[in-house]
Q: What sequence folds into this?
């Protein structure tokens, strides 16, 4: 299969007639065929109409059928073979090993959600049986399950062209919940998007599902995305990208006659706190781990460690020196797009204006390459500057020098919401950590000890989320099995005859799911 | 204890110096002492600051301590004795039996949440243990629990001066979640609010909790409420009231530098579908049940049946005749406030302009009384009129005459989001019910068969919620134990040493809660 330059509306391949998107190989600056002409608003409406039609049956598909569909998507993606990897390499500048790993993660994620669908915990079945003899009033029979919200709009991210894009976490969790998905393709990797889209399209057909379960739309600029979020049939939005982009979608979603939830993952600088004993004992090792994390994917991870906080002194100086050495030895890396590289250069320039430059990686040979950058500033200056809290997307980080642990605490308190917060600590640091932990819990979706925030495990306990502006909705996660909850709502059934009750709620528990019966877990 | 005319900020009683609120006895039109001078914005900020301080410790209070606090509130409310009931009767025009029942429900609700807190399901503990040998990459130890969002603003409703007000469902669920609560008192029942507020204040003191766990603010107009929602320390909002009021709070919450979730329960007309066999067999009985539900609390229930849909013919005519007779025999009832009565009179006037009046209850002797009103119109006219879908708060309902079941289905499809949808059916109606059920599930938070929507059981399976505009957030419920989830967010802990792990996540499961370990329920 090779990319054809088409959008996918249900089972049809559709060639738009609006402004054209063309991928650019960031490693060469050359554009890649084919052209992707954008769709118009009518095409958006058609995709939403198909999704609405599909919703009627897809949301009640059996747990088995839905799980099999998710597994079929994974199999179809794998069946694309190397064409997917080579196209993604050309469109993103990311290396083969990374993209092969990301494909594994994407397919593993789909299979995890298949298992989650089968287990049925997400239904959250609750049964309060009738109590006809209760005084002063009898109780009627009341049963609750969760149902799919409706068609979901998904906006893929540029930095994970597989795992956070067309068949990424948002699509997988929405499909798992029983929601048809309409994806607005990211313009940075159209060919990759189309290939994965065709794999999903194929899986829809093979599983005999209604075609509207999945559509993939191309459109340059913001119009198509805004039209999608404004469409009355869309009932929720998943987005990973910039703060400005997420805020714009939140606004559109709130201004609809019927407001809808937006799950936007936007902006995080992922602070790392170096506690004194750990810094003293293993400063050099921590510095190397830090720069390794900073350099991952050219720093284009949402969990990139953009802030390192320590108490000033010889140990911090030694850490900074070791980090500077590692930064100096870092190879230049091609960034995802020319635009991202330009924004990175701007952001580094702004940091340079406000903070001391500690080290910069040497320039490479290709265009659009990031040179890892390390800056430092005093906590007092950081606390006084809003600009220093802004995310620089790419390998750049800022060391904050605090006078003491109290000032470190003040820095923690001043932070905006984050995806992650990390503590580097040794046994003697536990008291200091206990002071910081309640602050960090409030600021971040995930708190780590002696690790690095890059690398997000796809599992049941993961939270890839966090308070605003890390995300638009701290009450959920975009990675891990709990993400299915984003796309569900509870419905209560009062006194329904057995013949009308949804299968999940029937007395004999045909789905064999855990249930809360009269408040007791069974 | 008698009402003093004060706000409560933490353990202090505070007398404002802004415009005065004074309760009005709607049965006599006379105003009731004392005056409640409104607070200024500084007082709002003080209450939020205290709440923020309290949050630090209250959110980590032990399950036992928090449950005991909720039970202490219930006991303190009961200890107020008859002074609470007589004051609430005077302020609302509601009869004694209703208010005594509502007090029982309010205290029962607090005790239910105490049990929920102790059981600890709400923590949603998930543990994915480390897999150091996993290939190609080891897995680190990951654990998830839910934590309280932060201080919550609660806006009580006028129609349930106890169960949806100062110590009502929103306060109980937020306190259960570990969130301090700042209540903006409803101006319609200030004395009732103060008495209940003092009971909570007392419980805070007796339980040795930080005073900021609870504050109660009086202020006329919208300024204090808007200031409260805009305060940066407030992290979520619970509201029950009008659509316009809810929308205004949603707007304020979205326009904050950090947007926050708003749980507004606003507007619902609670359609009742009369299926043919049931209508034929028990039309008269259904008509009596319907008018009984319509008249409850002078129709001032959010679940009041404001819409009845049937297929035209002799059976529907007989139902309408029986309902008209019951309406004609309904006693006039005092409404909650002069303002609500005026809005009711307007709404009934508008219905009279757009639909046929079927029956009207006779006038009573007091002021501000509702006379139950029944109207009818053809489905075609209903589908063409937006005004006919607007909620009339109070005992008024509209019968929709459909040509056939297909038109009944079209009416269902055209409805806005609802708290409830009801089916009256007999065995022969099951096929028709199966056609409607998927539509109703999408429109409503609760679907009932052969019952009436008024009367909301406080239990585990209840959903008192539903799609917009019934509520601002269909993903939750404002009644029942699942309401605790509104005020929680997940946090993931990666690789924390045992000495730093929150108690809920420790290996030996000290809280003895159900856990999801490696995806398996234990």
A:
């Amino acid at each position: 299969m090779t990319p054809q330059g088409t959008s996918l509306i249900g089972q049809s391949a559709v060639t738009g007639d609006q402004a054209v998107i063309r991928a650019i190989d960031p490693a060469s600056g050359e554009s890649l065929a084919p052209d992707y002409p954008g769709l118009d608003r009518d095409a958006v409406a058609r995709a939403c109409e198909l999704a609405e039609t599909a919703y009627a049956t897809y949301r009640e598909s059996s747990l088995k059928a839905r799980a099999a569909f998710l597994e079929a998507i994974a199999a179809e993606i794998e069946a694309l073979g190397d064409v997917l990897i080579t196209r993604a390499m050309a469109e993103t500048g990311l290396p083969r090993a990374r993209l092969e790993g990301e494909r594994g993660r994407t397919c593993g994620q789909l299979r995890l959600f298949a298992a989650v669908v089968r287990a049925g915990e997400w239904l959250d079945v609750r049964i309060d049986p009738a109590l006809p003899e209760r005084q002063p009033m009898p109780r009627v029979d009341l049963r609750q399950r969760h149902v799919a919200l409706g068609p979901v709009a998904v906006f893929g991210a540029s930095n994970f062209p597989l795992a956070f894009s067309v068949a990424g976490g948002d699509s997988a969790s929405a499909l798992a919940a029983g929601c048809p998905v309409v994806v607005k393709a990211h313009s940075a990797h159209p060919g990759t998007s189309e290939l994965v889209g065709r794999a999903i399209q194929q899986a829809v057909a093979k599983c005999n599902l209604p075609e509207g379960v999945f559509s993939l739309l191309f459109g340059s600029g913001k119009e198509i995305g805004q039209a999608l979020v404004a469409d009355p049939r869309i009932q929720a939005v998943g987005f990973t990208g910039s703060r400005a982009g997420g805020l714009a979608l939140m606004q559109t979603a709130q201004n609809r006659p019927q407001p809808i939830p937006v799950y936007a993952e936007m902006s995080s600088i992922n602070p790392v706190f170096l506690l004194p004993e750990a810094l003293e004992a293993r400063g050099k090792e921590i510095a190397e781990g830090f720069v390794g994390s900073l350099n991952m994917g050219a720093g284009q991870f949402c969990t990139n460690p953009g802030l390192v906080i320590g108490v000033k002194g010889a140990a911090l100086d030694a850490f900074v020196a070791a980090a500077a050495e590692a930064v100096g030895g870092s190879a230049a890396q091609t960034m995802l797009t020319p635009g991202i590289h330009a924004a990175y250069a701007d952001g580094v320039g702004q940091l340079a204006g406000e903070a001391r430059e500690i080290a910069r990686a040497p320039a490479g040979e290709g265009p659009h390459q990031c040179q890892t950058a390390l800056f430092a500033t005093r906590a007092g200056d950081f606390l006084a500057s809003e600009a220093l809290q802004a995310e620089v997307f790419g390998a750049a980080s800022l060391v904050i020098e605090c006078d003491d642990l109290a000032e470190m605490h003040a820095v923690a308190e001043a932070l905006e919401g984050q995806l992650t917060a990390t503590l580097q600590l040794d046994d003697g640091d536990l008291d200091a950590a206990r002071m910081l932990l309640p602050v960090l819990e409030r600021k971040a979706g995930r708190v780590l000890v002696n690790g690095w925030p890059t690398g997000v495990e796809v599992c049941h306990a993961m939270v890839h989320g966090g308070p605003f502006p890390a995300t638009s909705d701290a009450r959920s996660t975009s990675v891990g099995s709990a993400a299915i909850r984003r796309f569900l709502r509870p419905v209560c059934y009062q006194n329904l005859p057995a013949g009308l009750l949804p299968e999940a709620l029937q007395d004999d528990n045909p789905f064999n799911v855990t249930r809360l019966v009269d408040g007791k877990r069974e």
User: Anything to note?
Assistant: The radius of gyration of chain B is 24 Å.
